[in-house]
Design a protein that fits this description.
Elements (H helix, E strand, L loop, with lengths): L16 E5 H4 L2 E2 L3 H12 L19 E4 H7 L5 H4 L1 H9 L2 E5 L5 E5 L1 E7 L3 E6 L4 H4 L8 E5 H4 L5 H11 L5 H6 L1 E7 H7 L11 H19 L3 E9 L2 E10 L8 H7 L1 H9 L3 H9 L4 H21 L7 H11 L25 H18 L10 H12 L5 H10 L3 H7 L3
Helix pairs in contact: 8-11, 12-13, 13-14, 13-15, 15-16
Length: 421
């Protein structure tokens, strides 16, 4: 084995929700069913940049790796897809994404920079860097759309998948939040472009167009997902010029807190902190899976504890503080050490002369005697006086004189004045 062989990247944490910018949602993408699934698999492995203050995101498109077993599982458990993978990947790699501009212009781009399949390993894929504003740097785009991969993976029709995407683009409007229903009007030309209907197909008869592009895909959505979709035609006279699509998500059961906490540890942790179920699910959807969400929560709690320990600015709304800290990735601020000001250096004095040192020493002794003035002096007998004079004459015993006189409460000066020779 060559020592220069690149190590296999670890399988990424696959998101349950994936994101695309709204311009990419409205773009023409020449996908078949398998191509759409590979595209969605790639989206599951990236962590977009949602805001300028966000710290938990991919700064560039990672090389994604999906093991063969996981790839087969996510492709519906059908190994037939693996035998067709090379042909399909070649088609996907050559696929052009067409975005229409507001000024009448257009943009043509490729989705992937690399697709590589190794039978004993899995599928390697990496998005083209030109897709960065549409898949990674979402804070710079004109809005983005969240999609539930588990629901979309139930669909085999690309028309059905694209219809769901086009409607979920409007899921942030107030009407959906209130009644959980979305309506969107599209002209026939807009619908043909967004669904990548081949030029000239189903143009002769409206009933064929409705059956292949609307009726059959919508029936699949209603039978295989939790969404309920319908439409009505818009006419000018007798000519059908557009449709009004409607997506009803009111039949989707709303999970209670107990179930959500039991099925997803990160949501359970957010509920334990004090977030509502809707807020906990919204925060979790912004994270790259359970591990990333739990990491953000622990980091935010550390930031809160540091803020409370500092005590300068009280945190009135701790839940709101944690919400911002989790999503924006606030840094933990370490309290600054208070450094005392340096002590002023004493001015250097001139060295003292021997006389000054003797006078200073005598003054200190005088102060010490003054503080001990209340101590009575003991009388020294004549024999002890002779012994002291004898010690003063000998160098070896002279150091004991001060100690002996001190025990009597005398100084050498006082002794010599009292007992002159």
């Amino acid at each position: 084995m060559s020592r220069y062989r690149m190590e296999r990247p670890k399988p990424p944490i696959l998101r349950n929700d994936v994101y695309q910018s709204n311009p990419l949602i409205n773009a023409r993408k020449e996908f078949d069913a398998l191509g759409m699934r590979i595209f969605l698999l790639g989206l599951r492995g990236i962590n977009p940049h949602f805001s300028q203050n966000d710290r938990f995101f991919n700064d560039k498109f990672p090389m994604l790796f999906i093991p063969t077993a996981k790839l087969t599982e996510l492709l519906g458990g059908n190994t037939v897809y693996l035998h067709e993978l090379k042909e399909r990947c070649e088609k996907i790699f050559d696929t052009i994404v067409e975005l229409n501009k507001e000024d009448g212009g257009f943009v043509l781009m490729h989705l992937f920079q690399k697709l590589e399949y190794k039978p004993n390993e899995g599928l390697y894929l990496q998005f083209d860097e030109l897709m960065r504003p549409y898949l990674l740097d979402l804070f710079e785009s004109k809005g983005y759309t969240k999609l539930d991969v588990e629901q979309i993976f139930q669909l085999t029709s690309t028309y059905a998948t694209r219809l769901v995407e086009l409607l979920l683009q409007y899921q942030n409007i107030s009407q959906f939040k209130i009644c959980r229903k979305i309506k969107r009007e599209m002209t026939i030309d807009e619908l043909r472009f967004a669904l990548n209907v081949p030029k000239g197909a189903y143009e002769d008869r409206v009933d064929n167009f409705r059956k292949k592009i609307l009726d059959d895909p919508i029936a699949e959505v209603n039978s295989k997902t939790l969404y309920e979709m319908s439409y009505r035609t818009i006419k000018q006279g007798v000519k059908v010029v557009g449709v009004e699509l409607e997506l009803d998500a009111s039949v989707v059961p709303i999970e209670d807190k107990r179930y959500a906490a039991a099925t997803e540890p990160a949501i359970g942790k957010l509920l334990e902190i004090g977030f509502s179920l809707d807020t906990a699910q919204e925060i979790f959807s912004r994270c790259a899976g359970t591990a990333d969400c739990l990491k953000r929560i622990a980091h935010a709690q550390q930031v809160l504890e540091k803020q409370k320990a500092r005590g300068r600015t009280p945190v009135e709304n701790e839940t709101g503080f944690l919400h911002s800290a989790i999503l924006k990735g606030w840094k933990v601020e370490t309290p600054r050490k208070v450094v005392p000001p340096p002590k002023p250096k004493a001015a250097k004095s001139k060295p003292k002369t021997p006389r000054e040192l003797i006078a200073e020493n005598q003054a200190k002794k005088a102060e010490g005697l003054a503080s001990k003035a209340s101590i009575p002096k003991k009388a020294i007998s004549p024999s002890e006086v002779e012994m002291i004079f004898g010690w003063l004459d000998s160098r070896s015993t002279k150091p004991y004189v001060d100690r002996l006189l001190k025990s009597f409460g005398w100084t050498l000066k006082e002794f010599l004045e009292k007992h002159p020779r």
